[in-house]
User: Which sequence fits this backbone?
């Protein structure tokens, strides 16, 4: 049974930081590409950051230089360090795992609210 469990969300003031975690089980974590998405109220889900099995990272242009995605294969966990948060980054953050057979798995999401 595959499980992705996000944590670390919460309420933070603009300019603050949060670190999200995505703990995975039931998958071969080290072989999977991990991606964080955000869904703002009333909007479509959008990609925030990706890290491949080889730890190659990529980011949405709006978060480059402020967000950092990482992974710890010994803990089957992916992270998203978010600094200098802005109110427009409010939303539900979802963790996605994409395996070598092109199957996608999703977590339940964690709410991030940035107050102005």
Assistant:
């Amino acid at each position: 049974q595959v499980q992705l469990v996000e944590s670390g969300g919460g309420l933070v003031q603009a300019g603050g930081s949060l670190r999200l975690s995505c703990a995975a089980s039931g998958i071969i974590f080290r072989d999977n590409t991990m991606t964080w998405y955000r869904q703002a109220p009333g909007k479509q889900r959008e990609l925030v950051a990706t890290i491949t099995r080889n730890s190659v990272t990529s980011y949405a242009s709006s978060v480059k230089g402020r967000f950092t995605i990482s992974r710890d294969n010994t803990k089957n966990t992916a992270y998203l360090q978010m600094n200098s948060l802005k109110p427009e980054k409010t939303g539900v953050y979802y963790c996605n795992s994409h395996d070598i057979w092109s199957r996608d798995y999703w977590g339940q999401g964690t709410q991030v609210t940035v107050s102005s």
Observations:
- The chain has no helices and eleven strands.
- Residues 7 and 21 are 5 Å apart (CA to CA).
